[in-house]
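Human: I would love a firmer grasp of how sequence relates to backbone shape in proteins. Take your time, and here it is.
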Amino acid sequence: MPWLILKPTEGPVGTEVLARGTGFRPNVSLRLQFEDRRLKSITTDNRGSFVLRFEVPAMPYGERDVVAISQTAHMEARTTFTIQPRITRVDPAEASPGDTITICGTGFGAEEPIEVRVNGETIDGGSGARTHPDGTFTVTLTATENLFPPTPVVVTVVGKTTGASAQSEQKIEVKPSP
């Protein structure tokens, strides 16, 4: 019976994962799938094993199936990888009042409403914000001296359906108007 083991078994989109499979027939072609996405093709060695690395594709939050399939040998091994949310970008690091601050993230629920907080305060610019079908999002806020003081700020995004959350500490300096 074939086995598939991943290391790590959880992480955000973009995580590099080591996949090890064993128990397949020797020298048989396999394809590795992450949910319904074909990631890589590989041939087992003369003992019916394989090792490969892959990067977790953009997918919504939660447990996802990873499957190694040999159609010719009618064998498969499956396991799961848990997608965790992550804030991928908060920029620019320097702005003037009225400039746009962009916050991006991934690994939240599909088409999920999200709440954006800066230093624990929910921001109006985040109301009505939703993720895309793949769990990614982009939110823009208007820079003010009160919202982004010249000390590191903690940006938190929370999925209103899944409860998934991610934080990022950033220093965003909003320079006073001349």
